[in-house]
Amino acid sequence: MKRAINFSAGPAVLPEEVLRQVQEEMLDWRGSGMSVMEMSHRGKEYIAIHEQCVADLRELMAIPANYKVLLLQGGATSQFAMIPRNLLRGKTSVDHVYTGEWSKKAIKEGKIFSKVNVVASSEDKNFTYVPPQSSWKLDENAAYVHICTNETIGGVEFHWTPDTGKVPLVADMSSHFVSRPVDVSKYALIYAGAQKNLGPSGLTVIIVRDDLIGTTIPNTATMFDYKQHAEADSMINTPPCFAIYVSGLVLQWIKRNGGLPAMEKRNIEKANVLYNFLDAQSFYRSPVNKADRSRMNVPFTLPDEKLDEAFLKGAKEHNMVQLKGHRSVGGMRASIYNAMPITGVKTLVEYMGEFARKYG
Ligand SMILES: *Cc1c(COP(=O)(O)O)cnc(C)c1O
Q1: Which of 146, 291, 294, 317 could staple 155 via S-S, CB 3.0–4.6 A?
Q2: From 3.40.50.80, 3.30.710.10, 3.40.640.10, 3.90.550.10, which CATH number describes the 17-256 domain?
């Protein structure tokens, strides 16, 4: 068996240790005689898995008691619509910060439900930076302020937490969830699709302050109501049991490896290997403003896009896959989530050096 060095933006690399554990428990989960895939979601075995996953996430992120943790389906994309349905609470407008492709999608969906004010944007420089808060034109009557704290495609990350006063702050953290400690109390709602840094696709995590839920816009179906999900412990219907199980094992892996502070330290080290290399040469270019560079998703371009194909082919020969950048940015993108070992990043940098010497 040969495992690839996988730089996919998502679904993405998972810790090998976790995959082996899944394999070991596949046919008989801890003496139950069943695979987790075969269990009733109302049975005691699955309930234990579900509760452990929530408890571990609460512990790792130090989630305050007045926040609900919901394990839902539909991806982060469904949240673009579910958030306004639940958090408008009679208000007529929302504030959005526009920092790239994912904020754009949230803005588009937000417009279905209310007036959207784009209070800051980095469109002028092709989404290569986070607009400083001093430039934001916040509306104190907005229902909430929406940000995307890590733009997966552009590779732009918030390394600071905005202060929106009394207006609730909502954050799409999909692609840097559990990559670093977060002060949850500064946010009204945090959401993330699991398949970037937590587990398999199919699970979406929502962390929401409990006083904000319970007032949906009229005619909201049960499945789009946070309050009803919270009251049913995310079991109104069948949850994504297997994705929750694997994500739970990833959380335990994070706990065994020092928790979020240790993840952050490792992620800084890994990102530094790649960015220090990029800064010390002139063949490749990193388009993102230094202070706002993502530790998770690192886009870079070659001097001529005609070289892209040769770069990707050579990478494949070195066992490295999924480096092609998003079509909106071009070039390459290396996603280096929690489960990417530092040796993977070093192998990439070595290859990049070799390639530049050959074609530079
Ligand atoms: C991938 C991604 C999404 C979309 O997630 P789905 O689970 O596929 O709906 C939204 N926001 C960000 C920041 C992402 O990286």
Answers
A1: 294
A2: 3.40.640.10
